[in-house]
Amino acid sequence: MRRLVRTVLPSAEVLQGAVRTSWDPNGHQPESFFMDRKDLAHMYPTQKPWTTAGDFGYQRGVYWNIFLTPNPVIRLPHERRRLNPKKAKVVTVFGASGWLGIHIVRELLANPDIETVRVTTRYPMHIPAGSDLEKLLEEGGNRIELHECDVADRIQVNVAANGADTLIHAVDYHSEFSGNSHHDVYVIGASNVAYTARHVRAERVIFCSGLDSTFASESNYVDMRFRAEEAVAANFADATILRFGPLYGKHYRYRGLGKYIYPASWSGSRVQPTWVVDAARAVVRCTRSQRAIRYKLDLGGPQNMTHLQFMQLFSSHYHKRLVFPLHKGVGLFFGKLLPWIIPRPWFDDNWVITWELDQVNRNPAIWDRLASWSQIGLKPHSMEEATAIDFAGAKIEDLNELNKAQDALEAQDVADLAAEEEAAKKSGIYRSKAEPGHGRADGMELVAQEIYPGEQFRIRALENAKYPSTVKNPHPVAIH
Q: Who contacts 345 (Cβ-Cβ below 8 Å, separation ≥6)?
């Protein structure tokens, strides 16, 4: 009798595991994986996601970078949070060669309490002869320093910031081009400045933004400036965010045909233009004001008008040119076209979409820790007043005298708080000091003592090292 032999065929799962249907050079390794074109498109998107709100904009490609910064809750070994920072004496201005940066440097040099101003630019060897920056470098003497620095380069940021107590990010540009994206300059650059401030023990960080900053806007310029604000606040909790309206003023830097014509797309959008001198004075005030700490300041000008009215008024008061409304479709067409035919275009679609939303002060009743000019004791000038100062020789208030009044006001705030605490003690309420390790006398100062790296991370004291006078024993000791 013939014996029947049953042949057991391998299952589909076994065949699938034994035979690879795609090429994988590391297929023999169990930890390998294969990515197809869909995965690559998700990791390196070529298009910005179409969204106007929500979390979707954070979940694509380069937008993860904002969460790759170090956790600000975890303090550095040397770090304590300075809730009551000192007034600025050594200031580093990133973007000092820009139009706003030049005015900031000029106002800083006019303040006798500022000892050193460090101006940074990516191209220190290409400063135009006779430019405002060259004049300030000659007039500043020993109080001004010139540094080569690209905010996207963390090493250069560290060198320019080391030893400074205040860092100002005033970099601004509109047209993206290869190697100079808005994401690199704003999100990466602002993160570098804010995180480096903690490394070099800086007291203050000031980030200059605009009233148009909006999350997930179709304009990368608008979107990335908002993400930069979030990155700065995450890396340096006590930072000051300044949002200005569209800047105007003397010697505005036109590009291309902008000297002669201005087609206003979205001509009906509301704006509050800010005089560039007022913006610079606000930055200098924030370098020495306690009221600016941990605040976002919407610093739009006193006049609220449409985009078209603003440019017509600017043209009539400052630089004559033809201003006319332009359909947004035509503006976007040329904004898309110019980057393909001009190496560094005069404008692109990012700049056109900037005017889609209103650029006015937000409501402080809705947004947390939001204020305006009154918070820092300044009053902005209208365009007519600014024109009289720029061209007619009208006098402007001395900022140093205004600073004295602001210092007296803040001293009164401290006295009022002390009186409030004394009144609370009579009711049996005792408040601990907000800043750890300073001024406490209840036995808890050891718990909140500032960590010094020489005590915990070195086997022995560094040879020939100059330790601070507060360090009594530089050798390793137990953690308090």
A: 175, 177, 338, 339
- For residue 218, give every residue at least 6 positions away whose Cβ sits within 8 Å of its Cβ, in sequence order, or none: 48, 50, 52, 353, 356
Q: What is the pTM of this model?
A: 0.77
Give the span between the Cα atoms of 211 and 298, in whole angstroms: 7
Q: What is the pLDDT of residue 382?
A: 96
- Which pLDDT belongs to residue 428? 73
What is the per-residue DSSP string for 287-336? TT-STTTT-EEEE--S--EEHHHHHHHHHHHT---EEEEE-HHHHHHHHH
Q: If you search the block for the tokens 């595991």, which residue do you land on?
A: 17
* Token reading at 402: 């205004």
Whether 476 and 451 have beta carbons less than 8 Å apart is answered as no
d(CA 64, CA 62): 5
Cα 249 to Cα 153, 275, 319, 408, 460: the distances in Å are 31, 6, 10, 31, 58
pLDDT value of position 99: 93
What's the pLDDT score for residue 338? 87
What's the CA gap between 215 and 231, in Å, rounded?
A: 12
For 309: left if phi > 0, alpha if psi spans -120 to 50, otherwise beta; the answer is alpha
Round to whole Å and give the CA distance between 120 and 146: 6
First to last CA, the chain: 90
d(CA 225, CA 387): 29
Q: Which domains does the chain have, with CATH numbers?
A: 81-254+273-300+362-381 (3.40.50.720), 450-480 (no CATH)
Q: Angle of helix 220-235 relative to helix 189-199, nearest 10 degrees?
A: 10
Residue carrying the six token digits 């179409």:
50
The segments of the chain whose pLDDT lies below 70 read: 1-83, 177-179, 430-480
Residue 62: CB atoms within 10 A of its CB come to 16
* Separation CA 341–CA 332 (nearest Å): 15
